[in-house]
Amino acid sequence: MKETMKYSILSLLLTAALVTGCKEDFITKEFTNGVAESNFFKDAKDVEQSLTAVYDVIGQKGVYREAVFVLGSCPSDDIDEKTGDTGDYGFHFKNASDFRWFPDNPFSRARWYDAYKGIFRANTFLEKVPPVTMDENLKKQYLAEARFLRALYYWNLTITFGDIPFFTKVLTQPEYADLARTPQATVYQQIEADLTAAIPDLPVAASNPVGRVTKGAALGFLGRVYLYQKKWQQAADASQQVVALGQYRLVPSYISIFNGQAENSSESLMDFQSVGFAPGYFTDASENSIAAMWSPTIGWANWYTPSEESKKLFAPGDIRRKSVLIAGATPADSIDVDGTGPKPFPSLPMRTQYFNNANVRKFLPEGKIMAQVDNFDVNYPIIRYAEVLLNQAEALNELGRSADALKPLNEVRARARLAPVTQTAQASLRTIIQNERRVELVYEGHRFYDLARWGQLEEKLSKKGFVKGQHEFWPVPTAELDLMKNLTQYPPR
């Protein structure tokens, strides 16, 4: 059960060994209460606790909670922020959407500090664990999991900030402060190396506790990493290795992936395990689903509003439309976007004044009172099988194997009850695959980065405020520039 792993994380967070200070001085606090000291790593129990601390960063604000949507979807053509004037964070969402990108946006800042926190923990683990006396096979698996997590955190950093400070060992504060930007290509090389080294020692999905890294997760993520670099053959090969594992398949019901009914399913290579633990909205201690920030029953429903363009993406008969959008009704019930059919949510006032007759349905917990923050416990799919199939289709088409690309593409379309694609002209099929990817992954935080790697940011987003040479990456937090004298700002000031 997913509760097992998250409970261990929450318990471990209460120990002094993992307490850190404010984000700006995390470099001086991370592991200084004992976790990084050699005398902490005595046995397998200590090793497992430390690995849990590396995992914990996945669910923090800057990684797979709010930031994944604010940074990956809000600036894209899938989201159209409205007034941005509600709550303490509304204008930060709107600034992200409108390309008013300041160094101290709390979500880009959280991405920097949280991801580097994970890297510090992973580096410490990888350095301290090898001498520990314990079962060698288990040790190899744990080290492989830490390598995967370091790769995951570095990937989140480099797609957000481009060239970044880079290190693979435990650093002192002066050593960290002396770092400058490392080219993104070098960062990607290490990500590939970590994943490639991890894969042989990871178990297949069925043999690992829920929420932990598996061979399938590492292969699926490696395929994405290759795809982002246009390494088409490697991306196709890694994706095919996921298929060949025989562990994964698309679940029949698309909406079940996002409403809590099919968590950790056959489609999930890796989920962020949300348990609805939330002492408040947007707190660092929360382990709840990020959908709490766009529930149509709360005052800031305008923070994550579907664009008019994205609402028109769906072809006639595409069942995904009803699965990702909901609408306000009279009297104030939530219904599917067509205005008919079941009402999946309890009758509560819908903040229809905040959105254009539709709101994002993904990740909303059906059948629960959404006014209660603790009820948002739907997992976020970090890597799912549908993406692997789309990665494979894109890579095969770019290799000139357009006919081979149809099989994985049409597998995704079949679930949506759409007719199979037969087009094999490469340029035409490229457009079809890109559109299918947008529809399948819509509102999940992928769109901005897909546009970036396709070279379409200026074409698609200039009307929202995107300026070439200024908005490909986020600026570095101000405190880091003050600390790191060799670090330059983006864009150059």
UniProtKB/TrEMBL annotation:
Residues 361-464 form the RagB/SusD domain. CDD domains: SusD. It is found in: Cell outer membrane. Keywords: Cell outer membrane, Membrane, Signal. It holds the Pfam family SusD-like_3. InterPro entries: SusD-like_N (IPR033985), SusD_RagB_dom (IPR012944), TPR-like_helical_dom_sf (IPR011990). Signal peptide: none annotated. Residues 97-227 form the SusD-like N-terminal domain. Its main location: membrane. Belongs to the SusD family. This is Putative outer membrane starch-binding protein. It comes from Larkinella arboricola.
